[in-house]
TrEMBL record:
It comes from marine sediment metagenome. The lineage of its organism: unclassified sequences, metagenomes, ecological metagenomes. This is Histone deacetylase domain-containing protein.
Length: 103
């Protein structure tokens, strides 16, 4: 075929998994479609995660080694202190209440 349409399952993928999927799509593309490749990114991505995932896609396309960003090593489930988080949340609500009436 000259064209392969693939719905890339980026939801809940970390950047390494994203890169692995892209690497696989690139290999299939090179074997079947003469190396012609196009990507479309649609909405629904995390604004924090989007640049990291886009970068991992670019790394896959150029066959670069993936290096995890430091924040991927953090384990928030064990390190978070709920009292501190609630204090920050309360402070933010107070600061933003004048600007967002829904708070």
């Amino acid at each position: 075929p000259r064209v392969i349409l693939a719905d890339e399952p980026s939801g809940n993928l970390d950047p390494q998994s994203e890169k692995d999927v892209m690497r696989l799509l690139k290999k299939i593309n090179e074997d079947i479609c003469e190396g012609k490749l196009s990507f479309i990114l649609e909405g629904g991505y995390s604004l924090l995660g989007l640049p990291v995932c886009v970068y991992s896609v670019i790394q896959a396309l150029f066959k670069e080694k993936y290096e995890r960003p430091p924040y991927e090593y953090l384990d928030f489930s064990q390190n978070s202190k709920i009292d501190e988080i609630n204090k920050i949340k309360k402070t933010l609500k107070n600061l933003l209440a004048n600007y967002w009436k829904s708070i």
